[in-house]
Amino acid sequence: MKKDVTILDYGIGNLLSVSRAIHESGGIANITDDREKIATADYLILPGVGNFSLAIKELRDRGFEESILNHQSKERPLLGICLGMQLFFDSSEEEGLHKGLGIISGSVKSIPTKNQSGFSHKIPHIGWSPLELNLKEDNESKSILNDQHDGQFFYFIHSYQGHVDKAEECIAITKYNDLNITAVIQKNYAIGCQFHPEKSGENGIKFLKSFLSY
Question: Do the Cβ atoms of 212 and 25 come closer than 8 Å?
Fold first, then answer.
């Protein structure tokens, strides 16, 4: 039986490409800005591209913050993609200090322009990067990731990165010029990926299938 997936439309995000990827993953995608439909969603996706400050303002102005937090409190699967993942954090320093949704303890900061050895790199971080799993024994069985995802490449494009306060909530990283970049976060049924699964080909579809398996 195909699962219904609600994609939240708050004016920011790759709605159509995410919708197509959900269909390819075997789900039924529903794009909506109707809070009543969001309240009854089984699976909810928060997409996002662009600026944190604008995105969180749109969520709050449209009354979606409470809807997202209610969904998360009911332990229903929730997926944040790229900027959508960053919105899960307590705060972001993008264009000032802004309060996030507070689902994940931690903050979003700009990617340093140099690594620890002083070697510079381009910002934003754009391109295909492999995952390095960071699973602990006590959360491995509940994780969206498993051994098949280790080393798989996904497509990233971002200038900011999340920093978790609780190490166990970062379940995968990727490296950019020897910098550790938070790639996947998870707290119970709230999952965030810094990469774009809808732009990551077969590996992205496998990741979305794992999300739909909850």
Answer: yes
CA distance 140 to 133: 10
- What is the model's pLDDT at position 115? 87
Judged on CB neighbours under 10 Å (0-12, 13-18, 19+), 192 is buried
Say how far apart CA 35 and CA 117 lie, in whole Å: 48
213 Cβ neighbours under 8 A, 6+ residues apart: none
For residue 134, CA distances in Å to 27, 60, 105 come to: 28, 33, 17
Task: Copy the structure tokens of residue 123.
Answer: 């910002």
Band (pLDDT 50/70/90 cuts) for residue 137 is: low
pTM comes to 0.96
**Position of tokens 């507070």?**
102
- Bridge partner residues of 44 (DSSP): 6, 78
What positions carry a catalytic annotation?
82, 196, 198
Q: Is residue 160 a contact partner of residue 94, using CB atoms and an 8 Å limit? A: yes
Q: What tokens does 55 get?
A: 């995105």
- Please tell me whether the peptide bond between 124 and the residue prior to it is cis, using omega within 30 degrees of 0: yes
Read off the DSSP letter of residue 41.
Answer: -
Class of domain 4-212: alpha beta
For 130-152, the DSSP string reads E-EE---TTTGGG-S--GGGTT-
